[in-house]
Design goal:
The chain contains one helix and eleven strands. It has about 160 residues and is mainly beta.
């Protein structure tokens, strides 16, 4: 009986994990050295686009600790491919009472931010996304990782 339970549990967990990432095309996180992000340090991601008919959602993830000193964050982004696109985005990591938003565990919080929704890339190939913080402080303490997810639009 224990063997059957193990098999059923393994299948259930596998199905759950697959269902959560069914729209995920590509994902990567990069660590921030010493959990202190310098304003001149760009974090660069290169990701493949193989289907130009599909619409994609691009999410930026910020992982931080309680040492992060601000409620919000500004980011400067630049996407390179057949065309170059620069942007500035602001989002909140904490609410008005100082409670951290996003997912938290063991003092580390992960805040996903929808950066681009239903974008269509003009050509297949490798695209590059460069991210720098746009805060007034030269160093941002408490930022442990920056990541991106490329997902098929409308699939979670």
């Amino acid at each position: 009986m224990t063997g059957i339970r193990t098999i059923v549990l393994t299948i259930a967990v596998s199905c759950l994990l697959t269902a959560c990432d069914r729209g995920l095309v590509w994902s990567e996180y990069q660590p921030v050295k010493n959990m202190a992000w310098h304003q001149d340090s760009a974090i660069v991601f290169s990701f493949p686009v193989r289907d130009i008919q599909t619409g994609y959602d691009l999410l930026v993830h910020i992982r931080h600790t309680e040492r992060y000193p601000f409620q919000n964050m500004w980011l400067f982004t630049e996407t390179q491919g057949p065309i170059v696109h620069s942007d500035t985005i602001e989002f909140y990591l904490a609410d008005e009472r100082g409670r951290w938003l996003g997912n938290g565990r063991n003092g580390l919080y992960d805040m996903p931010v929808l950066y681009e929704e239903n974008i269509h890339f003009p050509d297949t190939g490798t695209y590059t996304l460069s991210i720098r913080h746009g805060m007034r402080s030269e160093w941002l303490n408490g930022v442990s990782d920056v990541g991106i997810d490329l997902m098929r639009h409308g699939e979670e």
